[in-house]
C-alpha cells in the first residue's frame, strides 16, 4: 500500500488516503482490481491521493450501493455535471481546480455547450485537469466504483497526484494556496491577563476564560473556534466604522482585529528618507512642517491623533488597511484631517479629560525644543567624520539642559541646521575614503531620541520612574534593531504599571483593578505608546537621519545625519547627472508617464567603504498618472499601481524560455555560484581522463568595470531582436507550495512561457519541474496569457531606452547602460556578454580550458600558460564596441603575468584561489567556502532576531536555516573534493552555525533566555539534519557522493561547537560539559575512523577561516 511522504499535505488535511483506500471504504464491495488490469490503472489507484478536511470526512463512512446516476452516463457527462454543480452551489465564481478556466457566458463570449448536457458555462482557457479526468483510466475508475462515488469525489474532496521527490500536483479540489494550514493541537487563544494591580499582563490566559466559563466549556468553545478558523476560506470581513453623529459623546464600540502581539511598528518608513529644506534652501533637522506637532492648533486636535480609537477614527487596533492605497502592514497617520472633517465635531471622551492638560504641555515643550541643537550635541561632526564617543550619554533621569531650548516662531519645530561648510566633499575629493565612517553610532542616535522624548513628553505621562525607564529602554532597543528585525507593541507594553498612570483614572496604593477596567486602561495606554513610536520617534528619526544599510555590513543599520549624507551624495549625483542621465522637461516626462504602464524610478545611493553605489528601486509601487479624458489634464490615479519589476515579469519568463531553448546564447554564464559545480566537476573529470595528475593549472579572474552602466543600449535591443524565436508566447500561471522550515509554508505565484501553440498537460510540466525540487505541491491556476514578440521587444526597448529616473524634483532619462535593480538586468547582461564571448574569446580550447562568468566576474582555468596570458591581455584591452572595460585593479592570477609593462596582481602565500564566495585549489580544484570575505563582519550583523511569543522555536528555525543555506553539494562531494577537504568544509559549516548561535543568544538575552535544554536539542538535531541532508543528495544529485560517516560528522560538529563556545565558557559551562561528554561517547571503542585526517581537517579550517 502506498503512503504519502508530503510534508505539505499533512499540514492542510487531517485525512489523506490513496485513491484505492478511499474507494474501498466507500464501496460495499471491494472488487476494484482484476488480474488483467493494466499497470497504469494500478499505478493510478496507488499514486493518487484523496485529501479530506474535517467537514468532508463523513463521506468515508457512507457506503454506496445504489448509484444516483444512470449506468449509461459517460465520463465526460459526469465531469461536466460536477462542474455545473460547483457553479450552482457557489456564490459567484466557484473556487475549485476543475472549474478554473470556465465562466458564465456573456455577450462577449460565444456559448459552446459542455458535453451532451448543455450549459451556459463555457471554457475560456483550456483546463488540462478536466481532460485528465475524462481520460480512459478515470473512465475505468468510474465503471468500477460507480458514478456516485466519483461524483462525490469531484465535489467534496481534493485529489493530488504523486510526482518524484515527494512532490505532488493538484488535480481537483479547493486550490491548496487558498487554504489555511490546520491549527496545531498546542495552539491556544492567547489574550492579555492580569499580573497584578500594578502591571500590564505578562502571563497567558485563554480568551474564553475572560468570560467566566467553566474549564470544560472553555475547552469545547476553543475547539469549535479553531475548527471554524481552519475551515474558513473567505477573507476577513472588513470592519465598517459607523459615523459618529455630531454632538454625540458616545463612541460605538468596535471589535478589535489586531492584538498587541500582531501590531509591529513600521520601521521600513525610517529608511531612505529625503531631507526637508527650509525656505532658504538649507536642510532642516527635526519634524517636518506637515507633522501634527507643527500643525496642531489645540490640545483637543492633537488628542485625536494620539487616541484615534477613543474618538472612533481609523486606527491600527480595529480598522483594516486598504491594500490598494499602501503596501505597508499599517496605515500612515501623518495626515488625517479629511477623516476628522468628515466625522464632524468630536467631543473629548471622559477618559481623556485628565490627559488634555498633559497634551497641551507636550505641545508647548515641542514648540520650545531645538532639535537641531540637540542633534549637534549628541551626534557631532568632526574633521575625521562623526565622533565615535560622547562625554555624556543621555540618562532618562536627568533634566534637559537649557542648551536644547529655544524660542521659534509659528508652529514650526524644525530648526535649520548650520551648513557643513563643504566638510565632507573636501574629504571625498581626490582620494577614496570609508564613507561609512561618517555615520552616527547607535549610542548617539539613541541618546538623541531619548533626549527628545524626555524634553517633549511630560514626566507625568509616564506616572513613575519605572514606566519612564521602560519606555527609554524600548526606544534604545528600537534604534539598535537590525535591518529586518521588528518591534511589537506587545513587547513595549511588558512591565508597564497601569496604576501609576494617574491620568487614566483614580488610583490608590495597592488598588486592584477589575478586568474590564484593566483592559480599558491597557487599550488607552496602547494607543499612546503606538503614537510615541509611530508618529513621534519614526518621523523624528526619518527627518533627522538618513537610515540605510551598507555594502559589506550585512544587516547592520547606519544612521547618517541628513546634512552629512547630503554632502556625501552631492558629488556622486552630479557625476551621475553628467554621465549616465539626461534631464527631461517635467511636462514632457509627465506626458510620457501618463501614456505608458511603466512608471519612473527612484534612485538611492548605497554607502560602501570606497564611496557609494547607485541603486534603482524598481520594486516600488507608486500612484500612477493618467490623462483625464474630459479635461486632458494629467492627474494622479486613486490607487497604487504595479511596480516596474512586476510589469516586466512576463518579459522575464519569455527570456527564460529562450534561455532554455538555446543555452549556447548565454556562453559561460552562471546565474548562481552553485551552477559552477557540475561544469567544474565535468572539466576535472575530463582532465583526469587525459592524465592531468601533477600538471599545473593556471587561473585568471577578471571583473568588468561598471557592468550594468556601460552596456550599449542599441546593441542589446538588436541582440534580443535576433534572439526571440516565436511570433507569440503563451504564459501559464501556477503556484508552488513548499515548506520554508518546520513551522512555515512558502507560497510562490509564478508562470512559465512556451510557444503559443504548445499547450501541454499541466501534469507533464509539473513532472518536469519535480525533477529539480523536493516536497513541493504544484497547483495550476488555469490562466493563460499571450504575449506577442513585438510587444516583448517594445516593452524592453521602453524599459531600457526610456527609463525615467526621478532625482529630487527633476526627471532624467538613463542614456547609458541598463537599469540596475531590474528583474531583467541579470539575464540581459548574460545574453550580452555571451555574444561578446562568442565573437572575441573563440581561442579558448574546451579540451584544456574552461571559462565561467557570474554576471561580470570572469574565471578562466587552463592547462596552457600561453592561453592564460592571452586571456589576460585580451581582457585588459577591453571591448569598446560592447562598452566593456576591465577593472585592472581587481584582476587576479596565480602566475607571473605582465600587461603593457605592468605586473598583474598575483595570488601569493596560498593555493586557494578566491571567486565569488568560494575558493578553488589551484592544484586539485577542491572547493572551499571563502571565509576571508567574512573576516570583517561581526556575526551579530548576520542574524535577524525575532522577539515573539515562541523564542525557542524561532531560534531553532533560524539555526537550521543558517545550516541549510551552507549545504551546497559542491562543497561536500567527495568525487570532486578530497575527503580531507570535505571534512574541513563540514567543520567550517558547524563553526559558522556555532558563531550564529552565540550571536543570536547574546542578542536575545537582552529580552529573554532560552533554556539550555532547548539549545542542546537544537545542536543534536543540527548534527543529524546535516548528515541526512548531505547523504540524501546522493539520491537527487547525479554523480554526487558523501563519503563522511555519521559518526565523523557528529565528531566534527561537536568539535566545532566546542571550539567556538570555549572562549565564552563562563556563560556556556554546562553546554561545554555536555559537548565534551558527547565527543567522548563518539570516540569510545575506537569506533571513530580516520581521526588523524579529521584533526588535520580541523587545523586547515582554523588556518583558512575565521578565528574562533
Automatic annotation (TrEMBL):
<keyword id="KW-0158">Chromosome</keyword>
<keyword id="KW-0548">Nucleotidyltransferase</keyword>
<dbReference type="GO" id="GO:0000333">
    <property type="term" value="C:telomerase catalytic core complex"/>
</dbReference>
<dbReference type="Pfam" id="PF21399">
    <property type="entry name" value="TERT_C"/>
</dbReference>
<keyword id="KW-0808">Transferase</keyword>
<keyword id="KW-0479">Metal-binding</keyword>
<dbReference type="GO" id="GO:0003720">
    <property type="term" value="F:telomerase activity"/>
</dbReference>
<feature type="domain" description="Reverse transcriptase">
    <location>
        <begin position="587"/>
        <end position="920"/>
    </location>
</feature>
<keyword id="KW-0539">Nucleus</keyword>
<dbReference type="GO" id="GO:0042162">
    <property type="term" value="F:telomeric DNA binding"/>
</dbReference>
<keyword id="KW-0779">Telomere</keyword>
<dbReference type="InterPro" id="IPR003545">
    <property type="entry name" value="Telomerase_RT"/>
</dbReference>
<dbReference type="GO" id="GO:0007004">
    <property type="term" value="P:telomere maintenance via telomerase"/>
</dbReference>
<dbReference type="Pfam" id="PF00078">
    <property type="entry name" value="RVT_1"/>
</dbReference>
<dbReference type="InterPro" id="IPR043502">
    <property type="entry name" value="DNA/RNA_pol_sf"/>
</dbReference>
<comment type="similarity">
    <text>Belongs to the reverse transcriptase family. Telomerase subfamily.</text>
</comment>
<comment type="function">
    <text>Telomerase is a ribonucleoprotein enzyme essential for the replication of chromosome termini in most eukaryotes. It elongates telomeres. It is a reverse transcriptase that adds simple sequence repeats to chromosome ends by copying a template sequence within the RNA component of the enzyme.</text>
</comment>
<dbReference type="GO" id="GO:0046872">
    <property type="term" value="F:metal ion binding"/>
</dbReference>
<dbReference type="InterPro" id="IPR049139">
    <property type="entry name" value="TERT_C"/>
</dbReference>
<keyword id="KW-0460">Magnesium</keyword>
<protein>
    <recommendedName>
        <fullName>Telomerase reverse transcriptase</fullName>
        <ecNumber>2.7.7.49</ecNumber>
    </recommendedName>
</protein>
<dbReference type="InterPro" id="IPR000477">
    <property type="entry name" value="RT_dom"/>
</dbReference>
<keyword id="KW-0695">RNA-directed DNA polymerase</keyword>
<dbReference type="Pfam" id="PF12009">
    <property type="entry name" value="Telomerase_RBD"/>
</dbReference>
<dbReference type="GO" id="GO:0000781">
    <property type="term" value="C:chromosome, telomeric region"/>
</dbReference>
<dbReference type="GO" id="GO:0070034">
    <property type="term" value="F:telomerase RNA binding"/>
</dbReference>
<dbReference type="InterPro" id="IPR021891">
    <property type="entry name" value="Telomerase_RBD"/>
</dbReference>
Amino acid at each position: 500500500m502506498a503512503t504519502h511522504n508530503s510534508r505539505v499535505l499533512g499540514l492542510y488535511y487531517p485525512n489523506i488516503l490513496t485513491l484505492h483506500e478511499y474507494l474501498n471504504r466507500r464501496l460495499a464491495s471491494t472488487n476494484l482490481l482484476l488480474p488483467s488490469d493494466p499497470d497504469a490503472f494500478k499505478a493510478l489507484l496507488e499514486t493518487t491521493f484523496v485529501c479530506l478536511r474535517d467537514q468532508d470526512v463523513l463521506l468515508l463512512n457512507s457506503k454506496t450501493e445504489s448509484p444516483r446516476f444512470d449506468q449509461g452516463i459517460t465520463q465526460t457527462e459526469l465531469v461536466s455535471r460536477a462542474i455545473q454543480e460547483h457553479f450552482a452551489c457557489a456564490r459567484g465564481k466557484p473556487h475549485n481546480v476543475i472549474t478554473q478556466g470556465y465562466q458564465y457566458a456573456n455577450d462577449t463570449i460565444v456559448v459552446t455547450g459542455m458535453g451532451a448536457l448543455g450549459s451556459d458555462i463555457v471554457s475560456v482557457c483550456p483546463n488540462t485537469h478536466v481532460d485528465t479526468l475524462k481520460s480512459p483510466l478515470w473512465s475505468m475508475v468510474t465503471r468500477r466504483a460507480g458514478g456516485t462515488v466519483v461524483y462525490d469525489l469531484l465535489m467534496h474532496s481534493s485529489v493530488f497526484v504523486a510526482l518524484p521527490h515527494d512532490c505532488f500536483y493538484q488535480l481537483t479540489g479547493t486550490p491548496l494556496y487558498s487554504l489555511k494550514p490546520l491549527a496545531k493541537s498546542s495552539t491556544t487563544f492567547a489574550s492579555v491577563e492580569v499580573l497584578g494591580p500594578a502591571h500590564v499582563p505578562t502571563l497567558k490566559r485563554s480568551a474564553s476564560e475572560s468570560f467566566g466559563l467553566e474549564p470544560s466549556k472553555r475547552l469545547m468553545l476553543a475547539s469549535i473556534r479553531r475548527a471554524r478558523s481552519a475551515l474558513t476560506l473567505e477573507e476577513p470581513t472588513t470592519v465598517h466604522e459607523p459615523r459618529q453623529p455630531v454632538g454625540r459623546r458616545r463612541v460605538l464600540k468596535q471589535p478589535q482585529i489586531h492584538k498587541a502581539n500582531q501590531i509591529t511598528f513600521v520601521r521600513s518608513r525610517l529608511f531612505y528618507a529625503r531631507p526637508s529644506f527650509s525656505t532658504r534652501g538649507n536642510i532642516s533637522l527635526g519634524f517636518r512642517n506637515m507633522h501634527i506637532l507643527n500643525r496642531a492648533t489645540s490640545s483637543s486636535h492633537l488628542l485625536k491623533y494620539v487616541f484615534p480609537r477613543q474618538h472612533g477614527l481609523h486606527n491600527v487596533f480595529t480598522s483594516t488597511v486598504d491594500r490598494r492605497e499602501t503596501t505597508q502592514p499599517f496605515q500612515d497617520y501623518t495626515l488625517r484631517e479629511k477623516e476628522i472633517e468628515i466625522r464632524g465635531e468630536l467631543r473629548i471622551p471622559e477618559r481623556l479629560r485628565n490627559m488634555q492638560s498633559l497634551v497641551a504641555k507636550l505641545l508647548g515643550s515641542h514648540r520650545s525644543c531645538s532639535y537641531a541643537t540637540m542633534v549637534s550635541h549628541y551626534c557631532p561632526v568632526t574633521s575625521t567624520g562623526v565622533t565615535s564617543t560622547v562625554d555624556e550619554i543621555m540618562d532618562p533621569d536627568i533634566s534637559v539642559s537649557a542648551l536644547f531650548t529655544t524660542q521659534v516662531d509659528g508652529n514650526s519645530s524644525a530648526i535649520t541646521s548650520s551648513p557643513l561648510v563643504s566638510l565632507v566633499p573636501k574629504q571625498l575629493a581626490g582620494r577614496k575614503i570609508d564613507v561609512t565612517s561618517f555615520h552616527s553610532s547607535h549610542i548617539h542616535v539613541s541618546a538623541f531620541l531619548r533626549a527628545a522624548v524626555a524634553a517633549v513628553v511630560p514626566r507625568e505621562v509616564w506616572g513613575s520612574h519605572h514606566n519612564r525607564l521602560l519606555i527609554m529602554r524600548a526606544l534604545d532597543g528600537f534604534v539598535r534593531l537590525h535591518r529586518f528585525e521588528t518591534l511589537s507593541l506587545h513587547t513595549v507594553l511588558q512591565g508597564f504599571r497601569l496604576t501609576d498612570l494617574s491620568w487614566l483614572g483614580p488610583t490608590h496604593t495597592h488598588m486592584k483593578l477589575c478586568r474590564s477596567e484593566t483592559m480599558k486602561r491597557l487599550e488607552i495606554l496602547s494607543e499612546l505608546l503606538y503614537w510615541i513610536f509611530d508618529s513621534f520617534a519614526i518621523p523624528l528619526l526619518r527627518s533627522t537621519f538618513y537610515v540605510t544599510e551598507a555594502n559589506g555590513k550585512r544587516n547592520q543599520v547606519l544612521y547618517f545625519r541628513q546634512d552629512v549624507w547630503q554632502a556625501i551624495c552631492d558629488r556622486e549625483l552630479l557625476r551621475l547627472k553628467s554621465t549616465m542621465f539626461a534631464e527631461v522637461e517635467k511636462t514632457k516626462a509627465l506626458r510620457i508617464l501618463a501614456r505608458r504602464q511603466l512608471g519612473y524610478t527612484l534612485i538611492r545611493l548605497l554607502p560602501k567603504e570606497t564611496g557609494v553605489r547607485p541603486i534603482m528601486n524598481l520594486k516600488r509601487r507608486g500612484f500612477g498618472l493618467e490623462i483625464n479624458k474630459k479635461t486632458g489634464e494629467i492627474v494622479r490615479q486613486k490607487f497604487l499601481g504595479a511596480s516596474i519589476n512586476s510589469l516586466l515579469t512576463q518579459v522575464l519568463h519569455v527570456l527564460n524560455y529562450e534561455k532554455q531553448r538555446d543555452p549556447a546564447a548565454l556562453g559561460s554564464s552562471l546565474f548562481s555560484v552553485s551552477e559552477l559545480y557540475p561544469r567544474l566537476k565535468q572539466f576535472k573529470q575530463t582532465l583526469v581522463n587525459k592524465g592531468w595528475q601533477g600538471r599545473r593549472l593556471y587561473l585568471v579572474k577578471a571583473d568588468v568595470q561598471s557592468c550594468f552602466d556601460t552596456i550599449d543600449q542599441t546593441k542589446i535591443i538588436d541582440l534580443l531582436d535576433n534572439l526571440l524565436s516565436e511570433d507569440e508566447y503563451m504564459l501559464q500561471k501556477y503556484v508552488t507550495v513548499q515548506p520554508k522550515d518546520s513551522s512555515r509554508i512558502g507560497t510562490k505565484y509564478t508562470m512559465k512561457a512556451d510557444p503559443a501553440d504548445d499547450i501541454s498537460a499541466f501534469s507533464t510540466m509539473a513532472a518536469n519541474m519535480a525533477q529539480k525540487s523536493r516536497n513541493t505541491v504544484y497547483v495550476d491556476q488555469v490562466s493563460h496569457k499571450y504575449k506577442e514578440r513585438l510587444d516583448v521587444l517594445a516593452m524592453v526597448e521602453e524599459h531600457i531606452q526610456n527609463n525615467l529616473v526621478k532625482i529630487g524634483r527633476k526627471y532624467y532619462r538613463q542614456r547609458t547602460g541598463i537599469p540596475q535593480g531590474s528583474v531583467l538586468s541579470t539575464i540581459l547582461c548574460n545574453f550580452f556578454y555571451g555574444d561578446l564571448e562568442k565573437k572575441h574569446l573563440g581561442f579558448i580550447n574546451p579540451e584544456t580550458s574552461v571559462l565561467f562568468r557570474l554576471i561580470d566576474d570572469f574565471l578562466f582555468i587552463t592547462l596552457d600558460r600561453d592561453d592564460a596570458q592571452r586571456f589576460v591581455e585580451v581582457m585588459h584591452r577591453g571591448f569598446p564596441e560592447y562598452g566593456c572595460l576591465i577593472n585592472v585593479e581587481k584582476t587576479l592570477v596565480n602566475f607571473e603575468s605582465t600587461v603593457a609593462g605592468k605586473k598583474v596582481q598575483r595570488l601569493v602565500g596560498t593555493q586557494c584561489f578566491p571567486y565569488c564566495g568560494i575558493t578553488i585549489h589551484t592544484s586539485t580544484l577542491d572547493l572551499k567556502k571563502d571565509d576571508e570575505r567574512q573576516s570583517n563582519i561581526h556575526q551579530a550583523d548576520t542574524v535577524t532576531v525575532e522577539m515573539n511569543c515562541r523564542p525557542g522555536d524561532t531560534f531553532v528555525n533560524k539555526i537550521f536555516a543558517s545550516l541549510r543555506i551552507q549545504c551546497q553539494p559542491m562543497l561536500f562531494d567527495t568525487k570532486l573534493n578530497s575527503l580531507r577537504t570535505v571534512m574541513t568544509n563540514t567543520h567550517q559549516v558547524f563553526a559558522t552555525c556555532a558563531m550564529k548561535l552565540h550571536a543570536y543568544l547574546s542578542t536575545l538575552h537582552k529580552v529573554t533566555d532560552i533554556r539550555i535544554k532547548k539549545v542542546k536539542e537544537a545542536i543534536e538535531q543540527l548534527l543529524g539534519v546535516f548528515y541526512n541532508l548531505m547523504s540524501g543528495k546522493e539520491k537527487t544529485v547525479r554523480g554526487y557522493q558523501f563519503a563522511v560517516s555519521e559518526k565523523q560528522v557528529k565528531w566534527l560538529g561537536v568539535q566545532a561547537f566546542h571550539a567556538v563556545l570555549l572562549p565564552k565558557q563562563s556563560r556556556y559551562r554546562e553546554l561545554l560539559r555536555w559537548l565534551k561528554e558527547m565527543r567522548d561517547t563518539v570516540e569510545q571503542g575506537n569506533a571513530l575512523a580516520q581521526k588523524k585526517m579529521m584533526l588535520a581537517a580541523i587545523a586547515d579550517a582554523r588556518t583558512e577561516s575565521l578565528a574562533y
